[in-house]
Specification:
The complex is a heterodimer of chains A (576) and B (371).
Chain A: H1 3-33, H2 36-41, H3 46-75, H4 83-95, H5 98-109, H6 114-121, H7 143-153, H8 155-165, H9 170-179, H10 182-193, H11 195-211, H12 213-218, H13 224-234, H14 237-243, H15 245-269, H16 281-306, H17 317-355, H18 360-367, H19 374-386, H20 391-406, H21 412-436, H22 438-445, H23 448-471, H24 475-483, H25 488-517, H26 522-525, H27 533-543, H28 546-575
Helix pairs in contact in A: 1-14, 1-19, 1-20, 1-21, 3-7, 3-8, 3-11, 3-16, 5-7, 5-16, 8-11, 9-10, 11-15, 13-14, 14-19, 16-28, 17-23, 17-25, 17-28, 19-23, 20-21, 23-25, 24-25, 25-28, 27-28
Chain B: H1 2-17, E1 22-27, H2 31-45, E2 48-53, H3 61-69, E3 78-81, H4 85-92, E4 96-97, E5 119-131, E6 156-159, H5 164-177, H6 179-191, E7 195-197, H7 200-208, E8 214-218, H8 219-227, E9 232-236, E10 246-254, H9 260-270, H10 273-281, H11 310-328, H12 343-370
Parallel strand pairs in B: 1-2, 1-3, 6-7, 6-8
Antiparallel strand pairs in B: 3-10, 4-10, 5-8, 5-9, 5-10
């Protein structure tokens, strides 16, 4: 990658990630000094809320692990007919956003949910919102939200485990099979080799459960992230972000552990697929049960609530809600059209660079938002926009540029030159856009702000996935092409594209799903005049009829699935 | 494909640069009700409306927080609030500019700011919603104090007084009855096992579904559930005493509004009798403040309404917001407004555990690397 391309990437990361965080840090220091935080901390039970959040995340992880193991038994260890379809079905819980999971589960286990009513008749009252009886304890345990989040996130544990187990080290397995029964040998190897994937998934679920806002908001679960949003809107935006510090600390730890586990996970995914025995009926029954419970039950509840289609005329819930939200569908499509090209382009650029192995500090900068709750990223971007015209923001741009430049290259001399150039460029860009008023137009009136939020949140994940593809590019072939005089475009077409296009398609699908289902940051970043479907659902759930909300949820799921299927077909067509 | 993309980019650039007439409005009224009005304004005037809406969790205070955060470079022109205490808070902070709309002439002075920083319109009353299948009309509480009576223990739902009209209600309580009486009332509600919910909509939903027999909410929430066919009715409180609390929507032009002329046009439109009539006839059944506009069906006309000094209520909210948060902002409603002394201990213990976990994690990773 050329020097200019590298510095451009550093500049983008400086303005996208570092500058907003520096502005937030500056404002955060302000609220710590002026006593606002004292007021917040002397308010309601911050410690209890944090403890509740930890309990909730732990319970979610436990539930998710149990669900994942049920699926892994069939799809990872054994062979099942229609494996592709089952694996695709396993993605369904991830495609259903957590707030739609919540809405669906309240229809099942809510105050008047059909399962709650049945359980109440059996003398076992249960409600998805209520805590377990924990008299005498300061903190509370909420199994309902934990279950909903586990249903949503368990594929994060299951999928990497399945991929790893399908590539068990054949030689070790064969050697072990000589001394002990084959079935036991399989479990012993599986336990050893799937451990990194298992722990990576556990950490990811734990971190997500800690910071996912829509579920705890809709179920009214008193945890810290709820309080963060409350303080953000009621007291002070920066104070909300400061209050999120324990969550940030946890997320940083999780990201640290995830990046550490990444290498062993990747090593496990590189082997060749092994031949597997056919799964037993009980394993298949377990797989079907988990999928039915986690995706089937919520989907059927939504379809039931939405009511039948008015095929013979008249108006059904789908028609009436679509008529009211057609503009939101258009806006959401436009927002995604704005977001996807830069997300993919930046992912490719960052991945090309990371794949060279000299990533250093800029890798950490790019990964930073992964370690931040979406609310913090959202607040940082909002504060940055609010302070756009100020000298403080310009100073933050200068600092951000200097830091990004400093960590973007290897040698000491180059570092200072790079820091100088990127800092200058960042300040000039910030100043130029700020003075001309263009920044204001772009950031406050267009769709840019939520798009920037999504970029900051999902670039690390997409870039890291693309890096795996770039690491498989034939370096010798590239060098040979260079020596034979092929230009960079030809080299890309001949050597890079065939190696990365599959992953690029997968990243495009993942990026689309992530952006389409994001709510926590979009809730804060959506500008006047723009609508986003998930936000609309989140608001409608409070005052719209349950049938119409369910119908909108179903329509949004269809709208998410359709482009995913089109992208998959396009990717298949390319491969063919 | 390339051509289409270029056309898309060009149209986006053009749309960004074009100087069209528009107004940016922040709205705290429920999105579904406000959108219809704003669309009608767009059609009537040709002025494009860009609107942002509060979420139910942050009702009114969310938008107020946003306006405060944007005070250095305002984005919005108009704030349409579904109550008025938070609008007065903005006035006190110097974030509004006065505007005497000609459309406000028919509205009573008590619903307008004497300095013309804001104007009230289309009100809602705080009422009790009850499920007619679970509670007979004769068994329903008739006064605010009844809510604390043992007869209705565990039978009442109430939104937490931290946002929206419930917060305004708390402010009015503080302003009218004083600190001691208000806190005593809330403590009594907690002791009477009142179920505290996030919002009035949720309270009305629970009553409509028969989860709980009755709850405090606003007239619009009752109307929505009635139109859904739920077996609910409303009870106006304190009709023999101080009267029911009537809370108007309020509209104000923000200081430094980037589109001032359009903002004034929108304010004029919102304050017109036609809009009040539309809001009265709509699902939200808002009570018109212009004389001569037909009231909504289902709400008794001529009921006794409370005499309120909204400015004093707004001041009381500012003064006692933290007390309310101590009582209702935590894990469970607390009967005390004192800071929880042992709470920080839990925080530090939790953080300590985290630090130990982090150290163990790093140590195990290092050991693995060495191995």
């Amino acid at each position: 990658m050329s020097w200019i391309a590298r510095q451009s990437l550093a500049l983008v990361l400086a303005l996208l990630v570092l500058q907003p965080l520096l502005v937030l840090a500056e404002r955060g220091a302000g609220v710590l000094l002026d006593g606002t935080m004292d007021q917040v901390l002397s308010g309601a039970q911050v410690g209890v809320l944090f403890a509740n959040a930890i309990f909730l995340a732990l319970l979610t992880t436990l539930f998710a692990a149990v669900l994942a193991i049920g699926v892994v038994m069939a799809l990872g260890l054994y062979r099942v007919r229609g494996e592709g379809l089952w694996t695709a079905l396993l993605l369904t819980p991830l495609i259903i956003p957590p707030h739609i999971h919540t809405i669906a589960w309240t229809r099942v286990l809510g105050d008047k949910g059909w399962l709650s009513l049945w359980l109440a008749e059996q003398g076992m009252p249960m409600n998805v919102r209520l805590p377990l009886a924990t008299d005498g304890l300061l903190a509370h345990i909420y199994p309902g939200p934990a279950w909903v989040m586990a249903c949503s996130f368990f594929p994060l544990i299951a999928l990497p485990m399945i991929m790893t187990l399908r590539r068990l080290d054949q030689e070790s397995f064969a050697a072990l099979s000589l001394s002990i029964p084959q079935r036991r040998a399989l479990f012993i190897r599986a336990k050893v080799e799937a451990r990194p994937a298992f722990f990576t998934g556990l950490i990811a679920v734990f971190a997500l459960a800690l910071v996912t806002y829509p579920v705890v908001s809709l179920l009214d679960t008193p945890v810290l992230v709820q309080k963060v949003y409350f303080v953000f809107s009621q007291v002070d935006q920066a104070a909300g972000a400061v209050l999120a510090l324990p969550l940030v600390l946890m997320a940083v730890l999780a990201t640290f552990a995830l990046t550490r586990a990444e290498q062993s996970l990747m090593a496990g995914l590189r082997g060749k697929a092994r031949p597997r025995d056919a799964a037993s009926p009980s394993a298949i029954a377990l797989l079907v049960t988990v999928l039915v419970v986690t995706s089937g039950v919520p989907l059927v509840s939504l379809l039931r609530e939405a009511g039948p289609l008015a095929i013979a005329g008249g108006t059904d819930n789908y028609q009436s809600v679509f008529a009211r939200t057609a503009e939101a569908f258009c806006d959401t499509g436009a927002l995604l059209l704005w977001a996807m090209p830069p997300l993919l382009l930046l992912s490719v650029l960052a991945a090309r660079w990371m794949a060279r192995g000299r990533v250093g500090g800029l890798d950490a900068v790019a990964t930073l938002p992964l370690a931040l709750p979406p609310v913090v990223v959202g607040v940082a971007l909002l504060l940055n926009v609010a302070a756009m015209d100020s000298g403080r923001a310009a100073l933050c741009a200068l600092l951000a540029g200097a830091v990004a430049g400093l960590v973007s290259v290897g040698s000491m001399r180059e570092r200072f030159l790079s820091a100088f150039v990127v800092a200058l460029a960042a300040t000039a860009l910030h100043w130029g856009l700020g003075v001309s008023g263009l920044a204001r137009v772009i950031l406050t009136e267009g769709p840019t702000l939520p798009v920037l939020g999504w970029l900051a949140l999902y670039l690390p994940l997409c870039a890291r996935l693309m890096r795996v593809a770039y690491q498989s590019v034939d370096r010798d072939g590239m060098d040979a092409a260079r020596l034979s005089g092929a230009n960079s475009l030809t080299r890309f077409r001949v050597a890079e594209w065939p190696a990365v296009r599959g992953t690029l398609a997968a990243v495009a699908i993942l990026g689309f799903i992530l952006c389409m289902t994001e709510l926590s940051a979009t809730l804060l970043l959506l500008r006047p005049g723009w609508q986003f479907l998930q936000v609309r659902i989140f608001n409608m759930v409070h005052y719209q009829s349950a049938g119409e909300v369910a119908a909108l949820c179903v329509l949004v799921l269809v709208a998410t699935l359709l482009p995913v299927m089109v992208l998959r077909l396009l990717a298949k067509g390319q491969r063919a | 494909m390339l051509k289409q993309l270029s056309a898309l980019c060009l149209s986006l650039v053009v749309s960004l640069c074009a100087q069209e007439r528009k107004v940016v409005v922040y709205v705290s009224l429920d999105e579904e009700y406000a959108r219809a009005i704003l669309s009608a304004f767009e059609k009537d005037t040709g002025i494009k409306v860009e609107s942002a809406f509060d979420t139910e969790d942050n009702k009114t205070v969310g938008m107020v927080g946003r306006i405060i955060a944007e005070r250095e470079s305002p984005v919005a022109d108009v704030y349409w609030n579904n109550e008025c205490a938070q609008t007065i808070r903005l006035k006190h902070m110097g974030l509004l500019q006065p505007y005497a709309s000609p459309s406000a002439e028919g509205i009573a002075a008590k619903f307008k700011d004497p300095e013309q920083y804001w104007t009230g319109f289309a009100a809602r009353a705080r009422v009790l919603i009850y499920n007619t299948q679970l509670m007979a009309a004769t068994d329903v509480p008739t006064t605010t104090d009844d809510l604390t009576h043992a007869r209705w223990k565990g039978k009442i739902a109430h939104a937490r007084p931290l946002t929206g009209t419930t917060l305004t209600n708390a402010g009015v309580h503080y302003a009218n009855s004083g600190v001691e009486a208000t806190e005593k009332h809330y403590r009594a509600l907690i002791a009477n096992d009142v179920r505290f919910e996030r919002g009035n909509g949720q309270v009305a939903r629970l009553v409509g579904e028969g989860v709980i027999p009755c709850g405090m909410t606003d007239t619009d929430d009752v109307s929505v559930r009635q139109r859904e066919g739920k077996p609910v009715a409303m009870q106006l409180l304190d009709q023999q005493g101080q009267g029911a609390l009537l809370i108007p929507n309020s509209v104000a032009v923000l200081k430094g509004a980037p589109h001032l002329a359009e903002a004034k046009a929108l304010v004029d439109y919102l304050l017109s009798p036609a809009v009040e009539a539309q809001l009265a006839a709509g699902v939200s059944a808002q009570i018109p403040l212009h004389a001569g506009v037909a009231p909504p069906t289902g709400i008794p006309s001529g009921f006794r309404s409370m005499e309120v000094d909204f400015s004093a209520a707004a001041t009381a909210i500012e003064k006692h917001r933290l007390d309310l948060e101590r009582m209702f902002g935590g894990a469970l409603p607390q009967a005390s407004t004192e800071p929880a002394a042992d709470d920080n201990l839990v925080l530090w213990v939790a953080l300590g555990c985290l630090a130990v976990a982090a150290l163990l994690l790093v140590r195990s990773m290092k050991q693995k690397q060495v191995a």
